[in-house]
């Protein structure tokens, strides 16, 4: 007989209806821009072919947001905020080279 403590527990299913929202449940108001007319608050995504410059754009964006300076010298960053830059596609050494 198998001990009860060794049996894998089945996770409780998530009720997706509590995770997603209807239009009436979404907040009202104006768009809050992290970078004026470029990056609104929320979740963003960069996608392009390898070597197209995604990392350089993301690093420039992170610098502008964290320092509160204009992105590319042209797009206002109303308030500087801390940035956590996650870079899973390259090694720490490769990332350090790009930072320099």
Give an account of the 3D structure:
The model has no long low-confidence stretch (mean pLDDT 86). The chain has a two-stranded antiparallel sheet. It starts with 15 loop residues before the first helix and ends with a helix. It is 26% helix and 5% strand. The chain is mainly alpha-helical and 100 residues long. It is built from 3 helices and 2 strands, in the order αββαα.
Summarize the helices and strands and which ones pair or pack.
Layout: H1 16-19, E1 33-35, E2 39-40, H2 54-67, H3 92-99
Antiparallel strand pairs: 1-2
Compact summary:
By secondary structure, the chain is mainly α. Helix content is 26%, strand content 5%. It has helices spanning 16-19, 54-67, 92-99; strands at residues 33-35, 39-40.
Write out key terms for the chains shown.
3 helices; mainly alpha; about 100 residues; two-stranded antiparallel ribbon
Low-confidence stretches: none
**Mean pLDDT across every amino acid position:** 86
Largest sheet: 2 strands, antiparallel
Task: Report the count of strand segments.
Answer: 2
**Radius of gyration from the alpha-carbon trace, in angstroms:** 21 Å
Strand order in space, largest sheet: 1-2
Secondary structure tally, helices? 3
Percent helix range: 25-40%
What share of residues are in beta strands?
5-15%
What structural class is derived from the secondary structure elements?
A: mainly alpha
Global geometry:
flat
Could you tell me how far the N terminus lies from the C terminus, measured between alpha carbons in angstroms? 61 Å
**H/E order of the elements?**
HEEHH
């Amino acid at each position: 007989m198998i001990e009860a403590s060794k049996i894998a527990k089945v996770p409780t299913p998530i009720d997706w209806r509590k995770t997603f929202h209807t239009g009436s449940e979404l907040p009202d108001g104006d768009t809050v821009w992290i970078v004026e007319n470029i990056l609104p608050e929320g979740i963003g995504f960069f996608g392009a072919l390898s070597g197209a410059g995604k990392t350089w754009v993301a690093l420039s964006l992170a610098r502008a947001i964290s320092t509160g300076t204009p992105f590319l010298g042209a797009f206002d960053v109303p308030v500087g905020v801390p940035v956590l830059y996650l870079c899973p596609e390259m090694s720490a050494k490769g990332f350090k080279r790009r930072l320099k």
